[in-house]
Amino acid sequence: MLKNKVPVLIGIAAFNLLMLPGAVAQKKLTTIIVDAGHGGSDNGAVGVYEGTLHSKEKDVTLAISKKVVAELQKQLPDVKTLPTRTTDVFQDVRDKAKLANDMGGQLFICIHADSGPLKRASRKIGTREETRYRYTYTGKGKKRKKIPHPYTVTVPVYEYYLLPLQRKGTSIWIFAAHKTSDKLKTIMENGEDFDITAGESEDSAYNQFDFNSVVGRQLAQIYASRFQLKSNLLATYVDDEIAKTGRPALGVNQRQVGIRVLQSTNMPAILVETGFINNPEDERYINSEKGQQEIAEAITAAVIRYKQNIETMNKGNSNAQLEKDIQKAEKDAAATPAAYESRTTKEVKVLEVKSSKIRVELFDDGEVDNDVVSVYFNKNKVVDNRSLTANGYVFNIDLEPGKTNELVLYAENLGSIPPNTALMVITDGTNRYEVRLSSDLKNNASIRFELKGPKRP
User: Fold this and answer.
1) How far apart are CA 413 and CA 373, in angstroms?
2) Which of 246, 255, 361, 428 is the most exposed place for a label (fewest CB within 10 A)?
3) Phi and psi (nearest 5°) for 400?
4) φ and ψ of 366, to 5 deg
């Protein structure tokens, strides 16, 4: 019926999608996919600190995901809720995403458990007797002889163990905004699966068109944007519901390197890190029937809020609360948080570099003590909630000629040995610099770059 009108109608659709909040959306949420992270040969994180329950992440995620599915089916009987796995089997993350897409999912919820680097400690458990030797010599020249004199000493015996992680709580992760091109690629590859809705008429757009066309790419980009917003909206709701349980709610996060299972699903998607498997309190909580059920109910309550809002918005009704939620989600997703701007930033070093292409390797400075940091470059977050270890985390930045370029270390915690300290090894292709930074909950530390010589390498 609409074949002759497709180009015009797509243009109208694109305009409406750009102008109307929530225009790109399914009319009704009918299918939810719940994924239990890891499985089979992939254990995920494992409890290894002293006193641990020796939990395996794959088992925790399966137990929680089953309860999430059951709770969603109970409270939303008109919605089809499907698990990616119900047994202990391995699934490649790409296969999981494809399965979710093939099942017609309109919402993807991935369940995981978090962990972090553990500090090694030792303690004296006893003593033992050890034979040692003193030596004397007799004779001279070729007749000189070494004579041993044994004696016994008592030496301590130590055992080594891992200290539990101090960080605890539930965090929500979404597809990173800077990775939108990857999401766009997935959308374009699966364009025929989308139902484009714009305006009040069901015939106001047509979904069988080329996503590689100019207009098609514009629509695909809008889809990517709306997926990002919807993912952040649901993630915000889950974080709110977790906070209501009294557990530490660690907010909505975007991982710098992206999360494959999120970026390969053509639907709004979130990943819930239910708790830290190497924190004693969290490990026991996420293994308990009470804790698992509480998490399932919190996620379900968030999904109900999400469903009510998107369906209300799709009916064309005014929804002031949803607009507030969208504004809050957009604000929360902004690159520079209020806490970053409110802290004093102390300049530690000014580096004169000859290339605009800079490689940065980030380490914990000194003893590894569970320091967690974020890093901002020219007020944009480039490293998000990274646990520092003795193994360097590498990222790259591009300096802007003629502008003051600043790299800022932001402490997310103080670790077990305050303050939060980091070593940055910086190379510009020719020179190598080592800069030690120290930050706390009141002060940031920064490095300023001055680009000398050619503006581009």
Assistant:
1) 7
2) 246
3) -100, 115
4) 85, -135
Domain spanning 338-451, CATH architecture: Sandwich (2.60)
pLDDT in tens, 3-49: 333 333 334 334 333 333 333 345 689 999 999 999 999 999 999 99
Q: Give the number of residues written for the chain.
A: 457
What gap in Å lies between CA 294 and CA 244, rounded to an integer? 10
User: What is the rounded radius of gyration, in angstroms, for the C-alpha atoms of the chain?
Assistant: 28
Say how far residue 198 (Cα) sits from the centre of its chain. 33
Report phi then psi at 112, rounded to 5.
-140, 175
Strand-pair category, 432-439 with 372-377: unpaired
Contact by Cβ (8 Å): 231, 143:
no
Burial (CB < 10 A; 0-12, 13-18, 19+), residue 68, is buried
pLDDT of 25 reads 42
Residue 314 has pLDDT above 80, yes or no: no
225's tokens: 């944007």
- Give the residue range(s) of CATH 2.60.40 domains in the chain: 338-451
Tokens at residue 440, please? 């706390």
Third-level CATH fold of 3-115+167-332: Aminopeptidase (3.40.630)
Strand partners, 439: 420
